[in-house]
Design a protein that fits this description.
- The chain is an alpha+beta fold.
- It has one domain: Jelly Rolls (Sandwich), CATH 2.60.120.260.
- It is 16% helix and 30% strand.
- It is built from 2 helices and 13 strands.
- The longest helix is centred in the first third of the chain and has 21 residues.
- The radius of gyration is 22 Å and the shape is elongated.
């Protein structure tokens, strides 16, 4: 009986974990408005590993995406590593980036709240994944600030990359222009803010655009670096003048046919 109950409980937990992830995997409809996230609403994340309150964002620990320390995140294009697979991750309700050393994705409820990432021996390549529907939109741009929030004596090199894929399968494509070789400063300082902005024609007019900001396990003691002030925007696709003229001619022809009858 206990074994049956344990199995049932495990299945229930499995469904709960899946629900926590899938609830945030809804694609933000960019034609309905700009996507933004600055983490000031601490009620969005209240439970560890639960992203259900955060629209269109999921954090992952990045287990087994690399076996080495100091890996360039630009070279990691797979969605998940083997054998661990994709591990949804967020350490909720943390208050001290200086002393919290657990690797992965963490929510820090500090004076200026933020979700930050740092690598570790388990969190080989943690990342934040954004889900956006850009149908009918072009000139799609993402911008964000990388914030060093770790004022401890740690002084690792913390690289960050931006990548994308169209749809939900296959490898990611790296955006070289958005690479930051080291988003941290130190030791004992937590003031560096590195703005990042990027665009790509491939992001226009697709129903499932996935963008991710990814880092890796650094050599030495990793530092918590936040991904803040995230904005994804675009402009409405306007038909070419020739296309508009064609539509006008078609409408005129239809009107004439109706009159002839």
């Amino acid at each position: 009986m206990r074994a049956i109950q344990s199995t049932a409980a495990a299945i229930a937990l499995s469904f709960a974990a899946t629900g926590s992830a899938s609830a945030s995997a809804v694609y933000h409809n960019l034609s309905g408005g700009t996507f933004s996230q600055n983490w000031t609403d601490s009620s969005q994340i209240t439970t560890t590993d639960d992203w259900s309150g955060v629209p269109s964002i999921i954090g992952y620990r990045g287990d087994d995406l690399t076996a080495a320390t100091g890996t360039d995140p630009q070279t990691i294009v797979a969605f998940s590593g083997s054998p661990a697979g994709a591990v949804v991750d967020v350490n909720a309700n943390q208050t001290s980036p200086d002393t919290f050393t657990t690797g992965g994705v963490s929510e820090f409820e500090i004076t200026d709240p933020v979700v930050a990432m740092q690598g570790s021996g388990t969190a080989d390549a943690p990342f934040l994944l954004f889900h956006v529907n850009t149908a009918g939109m072009e000139n799609v741009t993402i911008s964000y600030n990388l914030r060093d929030v770790d004022g401890s004596t740690d002084n690792a090199v913390q690289p960050f990359a931006l990548q994308y894929r169209i749809g939900e399968t296959g490898d990611f494509t790296n955006v070289a222009s958005a690479f930051v070789a080291d988003a941290s400063a130190g030791p004992s300082t937590a003031t560096l803010v590195t703005p990042v902005s990027a665009t790509d024609v491939a992001w226009a007019d697709v129903s499932q655009l996935q963008l991710r900001v990814i880092t890796t396990n650094a050599v030495g003691s990793d530092e918590n670096v936040g991904v803040d002030d995230i904005v994804i925007a675009g402009t409405v696709i306007v038909p070419e003048p020739t296309a508009l003229a064609g539509l006008g001619l078609a409408a005129l022809a239809m009107l004439r046919r109706r009159r002839s009858h």
